[in-house]
Design a protein that fits this description.
Elements lengths: L5 H21 L2 H6 L8 H24 L5 H27 L2 H4 L1 H29 L5 H68 L6 H15 L12 H29 L12 H36 L3 H21 L10 H25 L1
Helix pairs in contact: 1-4, 1-6, 3-4, 3-6, 3-7, 4-6, 6-7, 7-9, 7-10, 9-11, 9-12, 10-11
Organism: Microthyrium microscopicum
Pfam family, one: GCIP_N
InterPro entries: GCIP-like, GCIP-like_N
C-alpha cells in the first residue's frame, strides 16, 4: 500500500476538522450522553491529561510542517491519532466533569465547556496550517502561530483542572470585587463632591446674607443643568438633596459590603477543602455536594451584587432616587444572604469569623437606619 499522499493528508485534515466541529456543536447535551462514572477515576486528573497529549501531538505536527523534507505520511499519522484518540479523549474527559456538575459545581462545569470549545476550535486552526502548508500558502511563522493557539487553549484547560474548584471560584469572586471596588470609588468621589458643595454653599451664604446675586443664580442654574447633561454624566447636581443624601448614605454600606467580600474570600471560600471522586465515604460525598451548593450560591449572589450596584449607579446618573433605592436594597439584601450562607465553618461550627459576621450585621443595620433617617429628613 502506498504511503499517504498530500491529497490523503488534506482529506484527513477535513475529516478531523469536521469531527471537532461536531463535538463543538454537541456541547453541552452530548457531554451528558457520553458521561460514565468509573469507580476509581479522578475527573480532574483525566481532564488535565488529554490537553497535554494534544499539545505534544501539535508540537510534532508543527515540526514536521516546517522542516524539510515535507513528509505527508508522517503528518497523516499524527492527524489519524488526533482523530481516533486525542480529540475524542478531550471530549470524554470533559464529560466526566460536566456529568458531575452536582459534585464539582455549575460554575466549574460551565468553565470546562467554555474552555473545551476553545480547544476544539484550535483543532481547526491547526488544520488550517496543515492545509496551507500542503498548498504552499502558509509560512513557518504561520505554522508556529497555529501551534501556539493550541498551546494557549490547552494550557488554560490544564490550569483549570490543576487549580480545581476553589481556585476558579476565588478568581470569579475577585473579578466581581474589582468591579465593585471601582463603583465604590466613584460613589465616594460623588460624596466628596457633595461635601465640597455643601461647604461652598455655607461660605456663600455667610458672605451674601442679604440676597443671592444674579451671578449666584446663573451659577446654580449652570450647576443643575450640568448635572443633567449627557456630556457630564459623572456629576450629581447639588440641588438634588435626595440624590446627595442617598449617595452619602450608601457609601458606608458599600464599604461594609466590600469588606465582607474580601473577608469571605479568605475565611470561607479559600478554606473550602474541595474533593473529587472517588470519595472515601458517602458522608464525604454529601459534604462536598453541600459545600459546592453553598459556594455556587455565594458566587451567584456576588455577581448579583455587582450587577445591581451598577444599576444603582446608573439610577443615580438618571437622578432616579426611587429606583436607586430599590437597587441598593437588592445589593444589601444579597450581602445579608451571603452572611447567612457562610455564618459557620464548613464543618458546621462557629469560629472567630462568625463573631466578625455578627459585628458586620450590627454595623450594616446601623448604616441602613442612618440612611433611611437621612432620606426621610
Amino acid at each position: 500500500m502506498a504511503p499517504p499522499s498530500s491529497t490523503d493528508l488534506l482529506s484527513k485534515s477535513a475529516s478531523l476538522r469536521a469531527l471537532a466541529a461536531r463535538f463543538t456543536e454537541a456541547i453541552p447535551s452530548a457531554l451528558l450522553e457520553q458521561f460514565t462514572e468509573p469507580a476509581e477515576t479522578d475527573p480532574l486528573a483525566v481532564l488535565a491529561d488529554a490537553p497535554k497529549v494534544f499539545k505534544a501531538q501539535a508540537t510534532k505536527a508543527g515540526l514536521l510542517l516546517v522542516n524539510k523534507p515535507f513528509t505527508p505520511s508522517a503528518i497523516h499519522g499524527i492527524l489519524q491519532d488526533l482523530e481516533g484518540r486525542v480529540v475524542p479523549a478531550l471530549f470524554a474527559s470533559s464529560a466526566q466533569v460536566f456529568g458531575r456538575k452536582v459534585i464539582l459545581g455549575e460554575h466549574f462545569a460551565n468553565e470546562v465547556t467554555d474552555l473545551l470549545k476553545d480547544v476544539l476550535g484550535s483543532v481547526g486552526i491547526l488544520m488550517d496550517a496543515v492545509d496551507g502548508t500542503v498548498k504552499g500558502m502558509v509560512s513557518k511563522e504561520g505554522v508556529m502561530v497555529a501551534v501556539g493557539k493550541v498551546y494557549s487553549a490547552c494550557d488554560e484547560l490544564v490550569a483549570l483542572a490543576n487549580g480545581g474548584v476553589v481556585a476558579l471560584l476565588m478568581r470569579k469572586v475577585k473579578s466581581q470585587m474589582e468591579l465593585i471596588e471601582d463603583a465604590i470609588s466613584e460613589l465616594q468621589e460623588w460624596e466628596e463632591e457633595s461635601d465640597d458643595g455643601d461647604s461652598d454653599e455655607e461660605e456663600d451664604e455667610a458672605e451674601n446674607q442679604d440676597a443671592a446675586s444674579e451671578q449666584d443664580r446663573e451659577r446654580s442654574l449652570e450647576e443643575l443643568t450640568g448635572g443633567l447633561s449627557l456630556d457630564t454624566p459623572d456629576r450629581v447636581p447639588k440641588k438634588r438633596a435626595d440624590i446627595l443624601r442617598l449617595v452619602k448614605g450608601a457609601c458606608p454600606q458599600a464599604s461594609l459590603i466590600n469588606k465582607l467580600l474580601i473577608a469571605m474570600s479568605k475565611r470561607r471560600i479559600k478554606r473550602f477543602s474541595s474533593q473529587s471522586p472517588p470519595f472515601a465515604t458517602e458522608e464525604a460525598k454529601a459534604a462536598q455536594i453541600e459545600g459546592i451548593e453553598t459556594l455556587s450560591e455565594v458566587v451567584k449572589l456576588t455577581y448579583s451584587i455587582q450587577s445591581n450596584f451598577d444599576e444603582f449607579a446608573a439610577s443615580l446618573y438618571d437622578l432616579d432616587a426611587e429606583q436607586a433605592e430599590i437597587y441598593l436594597g437588592v445589593v444589601t439584601g444579597n450581602a445579608d444572604t451571603i452572611t447567612q450562607l457562610i455564618f459557620k465553618t464548613w464543618d458546621g461550627k462557629e469560629d472567630e469569623f462568625t463573631e466578625w459576621l455578627r459585628t458586620w450585621r450590627r454595623m450594616m443595620g446601623k448604616a441602613s437606619i442612618e440612611r433611611t433617617q437621612a432620606s426621610n429628613s
